[in-house]
Design goal:
11 strands; 7 helices; alpha+beta
Amino acid sequence: MKRSLMLKSLMTISLLSTSIAANNNIDNKIISFENKRINSLIKRNPNVKLNDMKMVLKKDLNQDGWFGYAFDLKLEARGKNVSQKHYVFSNGKMLAPELINIDTKRSFKDQMYPSLSKKYFSKKHLIAGNPDAKHSLVIFSDPLCPICVDEVPMIMKNIIDNPKNIALYYYHMPLRMHPTASTLAKASMIASSMGIENVDYKLYDANAKYFYGEDKDVRYDPYKEKDHKKALDYFNWLFKTNITMKQINDKKWEDKLKYDMKMSDDAFVGGTPTLFFNGEVDKKRDKYEKFLK
């Protein structure tokens, strides 16, 4: 290597090392500042205790040196363990709890999602499309979420009918506000393991009818019903299956659902439906459409 080229390389490495050290110093200052601030706020509430706080994401917002920081807070509130995301924004000199684009009026919190890692593209979660496709779509959804019921079956059907260019992966994310959604999610898993095709699409497309049965005389209110047996009866009627509550409560399916929920949490998903196209969050839920054919 020529002397001039060697010196240039050493200078580049030195500058890079200095830049990394400076960035690490800024990050450490932000982490220390937020740790003290959060602890100070929590001490005012005797019913809440902070067990752990760590930074889980730093994202370049491409806005004149501003970065977004996400923290995972492990709290204990009235004897219950709670996990909560906390966001701040900084340009290295100033810190802000909120950052809004005045032209779009959108909060940059909407961009605070990680890029999905390879573990999200497991064939175990592939429900449609081509596993070797160049493009991927990952859906986190609740079968009783009204917006999901409106949009998700159309998205699934589009890829079922045009499977060449996109691989579709699905993660169950039943919300607490829909008491029996977890039973429908586990029933879907069981039905899929039995070889029934397109279970999730068919469940969404059915739109959880209030009245069902041969004479439409059985009522199931999917948004208020708390009886898991009624939810399972509806599912069995819809798919002509004989899944039992014993199967629903089996640890195997409970663990599989917990895994999906953990994957949702790791992806910072807080609501449904949430879509990631090619590993990046798609708030408008339409980026996949141009690649259907």
